[in-house]
Design brief:
3-stranded antiparallel beta sheet; binds 3-methyl-2-oxobutanoic acid; alpha/beta; 3 domains; TIM Barrel; Double Stranded RNA Binding Domain; binds zinc ion
């Protein structure tokens, strides 16, 4: 049986607390999702914000070979706006929803069951007037009265819905119960055999993947989820876990997806980098330790025969296995070749800057691994033009002095277009320098950068991850700032073997995103 994968990283995933992606970031994730081979990309909820509307519109225009869905409540304004955003998609899908549980009807919607059925019919018909592909979701389905739920689903099918989605909105179901629920729906709802039956599980009890797989066993043909399992509260079902469970245990599930599993790791990294939501080390499939063998007995077994302790090969999900690949004597040619092998094609300008960073790193670090290379390239392949770049930093800090930072930023001007990438950028035109004191060295760095850029931002969070092992490992700083100008949150990432340099790079990256979003005309100075 074919199982369709519906990815909602850009809609439900983006509803994760603290996550906010700009349009370019969403487009980059959508392109990677298409490369991954998901069947449907839910690109956003067009009525809720102009940013979502724009993202759905651009993704619909640019990303082909995949169905693009836009979410809409049952009211006509939502549906009309969703269609406006989706109309250029090759395969547009309007996804409309209304809650069906008594709790939601009474306290949230203040609607009677009859009104919910009427709204469902009207919404599906309205959506159907725009596109043949209409998905209907019964929000909080798993806590709904089964008889009433079946009536609503039947009405949606009769009105023209082609996909019927059964969400476990609050992550309350258990696998056996949910499988039974799906079987009942399949037996009771007239016309269900004509449509695709879908499930959408949340992870409040840590059961989202189990519930989704139990539903597949009970006949669900579409599974919804998000990369790395991100989403509202405890998140959605993790797409990579579902896909790999279906592939690895084909004997049990007798199902297959269209996903190119070798793209999983790269997709996971991209989503983690752009959302700022790091993946826990022991996370299945994409965690840092997912394929690491610590104990001697296990290592010995894997060396003799990988299948002793590995049920999947790391290569199957795109995790590269080579160790030390390049060093300080490696040339540009070897560097470019290795990047090509890792799947990166850089323009000549991008290659120059990445090679410069690599040489710099090779002076400070003995052996450079694939992960180091990926970290460099991911930092260099910025999606937005960088108005500011770190030129240098000096820090004086200690237990008995006031932390002070002196920062030099290269400032760029005049947008130019990178030849190969087509991305706009800035030509470096000068150096700006400032110094500031702070409560700690990171605070001093942020204040000095604020003095240069003229923006006043608050640091909401700061975190560091070691990209590789060892004292000379690259540190990857991810931070979140909020700007006083528009009260929005921006995520910045920076890498270096020096934690403070990585922090400065991350802060500058976040400021560049703010500047890009505000538009050049609104710069406070410079
Ligand atoms: O969790 C949920 O019920 C949803 C629906 C809108 C599909 O996200
Ligand atoms: Zn959801």
């Amino acid at each position: 049986m074919r199982v369709y994968i519906f990815d909602t990283t850009l809609r439900d995933g983006e509803q994760s607390p603290g996550v906010s992606l700009n349009v370019k970031e969403k487009l980059q994730i959508a392109r990677q999702l298409a490369r991954l081979g998901v069947d449907v990309i839910e690109a956003g909820f067009p009525f809720v914000s102009p940013g979502d509307y724009e993202a759905v519109k651009i993704i619909s225009r640019e990303v082909k070979g995949v169905t693009v869905a836009g979410l809409a409540r049952t009211n006509f304004n939502d549906i009309d706006q969703a269609w406006e955003a989706l109309r250029e998609a090759e395969q547009p899908r309007i996804h409309t929803f209304i809650a069906t549980s008594l709790i939601h009807l009474q306290y949230k919607l203040r609607m009677t069951p009859e009104q919910v059925i009427e709204a469902t019919i009207a919404a599906v018909k309205r959506a159907k007037s725009y596109t043949s592909d209409v998905e209907f979701s019964a929000e909080d389905a798993s806590r709904s009265d089964l008889n009433f739920l079946c009536q609503v689903l039947e009405a949606a099918i009769a009105a023209g819905a082609t996909v019927i989605n059964v969400p476990d909105t609050v992550g309350y179901a258990t696998p056996n119960e949910f499988a039974h629920f799906i079987s009942e729906i399949r037996q009771r709802v007239k016309g269900i055999e004509k449509v695709i039956l879908s499930v959408h599980c949340h992870n409040d009890l840590g059961l989202a993947v189990s519930n989704s797989l139990a539903a597949v066993m009970a006949g669900a043909q579409q599974v919804e989820g998000a990369i790395n399992g991100i989403g509202e509260r405890a998140g959605n079902a993790a797409i990579e876990e579902i896909v790999m469970a279906l592939r690895t245990r084909r004997d049990v599930f007798q199902s297959e997806t269209n996903v190119r599993t070798e793209e999983i790791y790269r997709t996971s990294r991209l989503v983690a980098n752009l959302t700022g939501m790091n993946v826990q080390h022991n996370k299945a499939i994409v965690g840092k330790n997912a394929f690491a063998h610590e104990s001697g007995i296990h290592q010995d077994g894997v060396i003799k025969e990988p299948t002793t302790y590995e049920i999947m090969r790391p290569e199957m999900v795109g995790v590269s296995h080579s160790d030390l690949v390049l060093g300080k004597h490696s040339g540009r040619h070897a560097f470019r070749l290795r990047l090509n092998e890792l799947g990166y094609t850089l323009s000549p300008e991008e290659l120059n800057t990445a090679f410069e960073r690599f040489k710099n790193l090779a002076d400070r670090k003995k052996g450079i691994t694939d992960r180091d290379l990926e970290a460099i390239v991911e930092e260099e392949l910025r999606l937005i033009p960088a108005k500011y770049n770190l030129a240098y930093l000096h820090i004086s800090s200690g237990t008995t002095i006031i932390p002070t930072a002196t920062i030099g930023l290269k400032i760029g001007e005049e947008a130019c277009v990178g030849q190969a990438s087509g991305r706009t950028g800035f030509q470096p035109v000068g150096l700006l320098e400032e110094a500031a004191c702070g409560n700690g060295p990171v605070d001093a760095i942020c204040k000095a950068i604020d003095k240069i850029t003229g923006y006043s931002c608050t640091l909401l969070s700061w975190g560091i991850n070691a990209v590789t092992e060892g004292k000379d490992a690259i540190g990857e700083v991810t931070l979140k700032i909020t700007s006083e100008h528009n009260k929005k949150t921006y995520i910045g990432r920076g890498i270096s073997t020096d934690v403070l340099e990585a922090s400065a790079r991350a802060y500058v990256n976040a400021i560049n995103k703010l500047i890009w979003e505000l538009g050049e005309g609104k710069l406070p100075k410079n």
